[in-house]
Write a structure and sequence with these properties.
12-stranded mixed sheet, Rossmann fold, UDP-N-acetylmuramoyl-L-alanine:D-glutamate ligase, single chain, 8-stranded mixed sheet, alpha/beta, 17% strand
């Protein structure tokens, strides 16, 4: 499923009308029908439900007028709040307003509505064109009225007051329980304030030809259940541990022995056949006892961590491996960073670089970029700020752009971790992950992600597919753990739930194929 910039959505509508001759009022009518279908599915029976429809003067308000008409026909008790002068209405919005007028529908001022009594509030006030602040006093008052309602708030296309591009919200912006958006989700839904304001997101089909959707340029794509399921690796019936892939995890230091152990566990839990943890000799017994299914290899070290010459021993270890994961728990001591730089220069295998090893890369940017084998970087926002020599706040305010720039700078696949992690490829394509939850904000979660991607890459031999699937599975495992432990989950719980996440995707394969046909017009982002 695709993610649009607001301007791309407007171009999409223009092309549907101009190139494919779909009347714009048909698109508006279909948008309204998708919202009504959602309301019927979620709140049935709708008859006699008390609904307030909040309408602005633009096309978003036009959607609201059409929604109100259908709800009146169903038998809902509908209060229509028009936050604009009727003479300001134009085009399709004006047409739908006039239909309601002819049907003798009542239009109310916000102050005349019984907000606490409403079962459902339909927010069709401000659309994807909103930028900046809500300055109009009448609009501001209407948005404040939502605080008095105990009903479910359903936003049409975008919650009013949210910038659908940047994800920045006005202080009065609607906090929707559900957002029904059209054709494709908007990228502001997945960053900054958009994460808290959209609620459950559904995407409605509005009747534009499929050819247009296939051909249309996009801002990003969704990593969701359906796309992740299509990437699942297949294991031959005669497979053995040697054919299921070998991972080498390199990292660890005194006090940070858990990081390489978690990464190794995750690699095995997603199905790789063999895993070797290469760690400083001082902590090798701890790591060996922590993950019995992996083998371990001691490397030269001092009290501060890995020594640079420890890299001399690695070629014999990664011989026969398919992927190397570098960085979990490595430490940022200069010897360890020099060791990491040697690994990056000398390793000819696909390489996943995480955690402390990321701090070694700025000094060898050209070496990273020139690697012949795939490189995957998995920074959190602070590590991304280090890679790009900027502040963490700038990373968070421009997650799509920074991830894309980093991928091109290092010629690597980049996973910018956080709520709705972003995967950027060197070709400029972007992907937004839908799985995961706030309970995963716990130490070691990133190490589990590194091992998850490494374990899949060892089996799949395709860095793009392994990374996309790994990011989704990691989040799904976190969701399964969260269902049992809420915010009490720890990183080991995520690793432990990886097999269940794999099973969950496999079990859903046939059912979701059927659901695709059933839910073709209205699909939840999941």
């Amino acid at each position: 499923m695709k993610v649009f910039l607001p301007e791309q959505m407007r171009n999409f509508d223009r092309r549907a009308v101009g190139q494919y001759s779909v009347p714009s009022i048909v698109l508006m009518e279909n948008a309204a029908l998708r919202v009504v279908e959602f309301l019927e599915a979620k709140f049935a029976p709708l008859k006699e439900k008390r609904v307030i429809v909040l309408c602005g003067k633009g096309n978003n308000g036009g959607d609201g007028f059409a929604i109100a008409r259908h709800l009146r026909n169903i038998g809902c008790e509908v209060s229509i709040v028009l936050v604009a002068a009727p003479e300001d209405l134009q085009g399709d919005a004006k047409t739908n307003y006039e239909i309601l007028q002819a049907a003798q529908a009542a239009f109310l001022a916000a102050e005349d509505v019984n907000w606490p009594r409403a079962d459902i509030i339909v927010d069709a006030l401000l659309g994807t064109g909103f930028k900046g602040d809500v300055r109009d006093e009448t609009f501001a008052y209407a948005l404040k009225c939502l605080c008095w309602s105990r009903g479910a708030i359903v936003a049409v296309d975008v919650p009013s007051g949210l910038n659908a591009d940047s994800g920045e919200a006005d202080e009065l912006a609607v906090r929707a329980d559900f957002t029904i958006t059209f054709a494709a989700s908007k990228r502001g839904f997945f960053v900054r304030d958009g994460l808290a304001h959209c609620g459950e997101i559904w995407v409605g089909e509005i009747g534009a030809p499929r050819e247009l959707m296939r051909d249309f340029s996009i801002g990003a794509e969704i990593i969701g259940r359906i796309s992740a399921r299509s990437l699942l690796p297949h294991r031959a019936i005669d497979a053995h541990k040697g054919t299921a892939g070998k991972v080498v995890v390199i990292g660890g230091s005194v006090g940070l022995s858990g990081a390489p152990a978690l990464a190794s566990r995750a690699a095995l839990q997603v199905g790789c056949g063999l895993c070797v943890a290469c760690v400083p000799a001082d902590i090798q017994p701890i790591v060996a006892a922590s993950i019995l299914e992996a083998t371990s290899h001691p490397l030269a070290c001092d009290e501060k961590g890995m020594l640079e010459n420890a890299a001399d021993e690695l070629p014999k270890v990664w011989n026969g491996a398919q992927v190397v994961a570098l960085g979990p728990g490595l430490s940022r001591h200069e010897n360890a960073l020099n060791f990491a730089r040697r690994v990056v220069r000398e390793c000819a295998l696909p390489l996943i670089i995480d955690a402390d090893a990321l701090y070694a890369l700025r000094a060898i940017e050209s070496d990273v970029r020139a690697r012949n084998a795939p490189t995957v970087l998995t920074p959190h926002p602070g590590e991304m700020a280090e890679l790009m020599e900027i502040e963490t706040e700038e990373v968070q305010n421009n997650r799509y752009e920074i991830a894309a720039t980093c991928a091109q700078k290092f010629n690597a696949i980049v996973v910018l971790k956080g709520a709705r992690s972003i995967v950027a490829l060197p070709d400029g394509s972007l992907h937004v992950n839908l799985s995961g939850n706030a309970g995963m904000a716990t130490g070691g979660s990133g190490d589990v992600l590194t091992g998850t991607v490494a374990g899949l890459l060892a089996q799949m031999r395709d860095s793009r597919s392994a990374t996309l699937l790994g990011v989704y599975l990691h989040g799904l495992a976190g969701d399964l753990a969260f269902a049992e432990k809420s915010n009490g989950l720890i990183a080991g719980d995520i690793a432990q739930h990886l097999p269940r996440a794999l099973l969950d995707l496999n079990e859903a394969r046939d059912n979701e194929a059927r659901d695709e046909e059933i839910n073709a017009r209205l699909r939840r982002l999941q």
